[in-house]
Amino acid sequence: MKTLQLSDKELISLYLSGDDRAFETLLNRHKDRIYTQIYLFVKDHSRAEDIFQEVFVKIVNTLRGGKYNHEGKFLQWALRIAYNLCVDQFRRNKRRSILSPTDDFDIFDVIESGYENVEQATMKSQTHMMVRALVDRLPDEQREVVMLRHYADMSFREISQLTRVSINTALGRMRYALINIRKMIEEQEVVLQ
Questions:
Q1: Is CATH 1.10.1740.10 the right assignment for the domain spanning 3-93?
Q2: Which of 54-58, 107-111, 156-160 has the lowest mean pLDDT?
Q3: 3-state SS, residue 94
Q4: pTM, 2 dp
Q5: 80 near 162, Cβ under 8 Å?
Q6: CA distance 55 to 163
Q7: Which of 20, 77, 175, 179 is deepest in the core (most CB within 10 A)?
Q8: Residue 99 contacts residue 131 (beta carbons within 8 Å)
């Protein structure tokens, strides 16, 4: 039986009965999504890799300790562990990550813009920097929803599961975030091109 075709639950059962390849398949199935979520929070590859390894150490220890209660939601469980470890990291550093591009990744690079001249590119870059600065000034709960929705491309259902709030609360936080951004734009008379 090929492990690639097995469900997460079946892979976990095989792993617990001694098949290390089953865990490798499980890891390969979900590693990109988990790593991306971590990276979007910490904005640093080496910290993201450290937290990613810590996530899987926790997963292995929980599985081996018989403390995992499979409800068909392995990925959500793993994402919740990653989220909690990122929050712990922020608490240890006593600061929130600033939404800023790195040499390797800028979310705005994936937005199609066609051909643009230097002036258009400069205006676009300045607009993105202003938007990122406004998002960074939001209250933590609102900033978190904006980051998860627009930077991690998560649905409101996924956000509600990850943050352990109702979908309506997640939607409300997004609504207030947009209201607050508009208010800051008006107060500061920011012109977005």
A1: yes
A2: 107-111
A3: coil
A4: 0.52
A5: yes
A6: 17
A7: 77
A8: no
Eight-state DSSP code of residue 66: T
Return the residue matching tokens 């490798």.
24
Rounded Cα gap, residues 53 and 57, in angstroms: 6
Q: Of 3.40.50.1220, 1.10.3720.10, 2.60.120.620, 1.10.10.10, which CATH number belongs to 115-188?
A: 1.10.10.10
Give the amino acid at 190.
V
Return d(Cα 86, Cα 152) in angstroms, integer.
Answer: 14
Q: What pLDDT, on the 0 to 100 scale, is given for residue 124?
A: 67
Residue 128: CA atoms inside 13 Å, Cβ hemisphere, count?
16
- C-alpha distances out from residue 90 to 39, 64, 97, Å: 13, 28, 8
Q: What is the pLDDT of residues 70-121, one digit of tens each?
A: 676 888 888 888 988 888 877 776 544 444 555 565 555 554 545 555 666 6
Write down the H helix ranges in 3-73.
8-16, 20-42, 45-64
Residues 6+ apart with CB under 8 A from 73: 161
All structural domains of the chain with their residue ranges: 3-93, 115-188
At a CB cut-off of 8 Å and minimum separation 6, what does 77 contact? 68
Q: Which residue has the tokens 């810590």?
A: 54
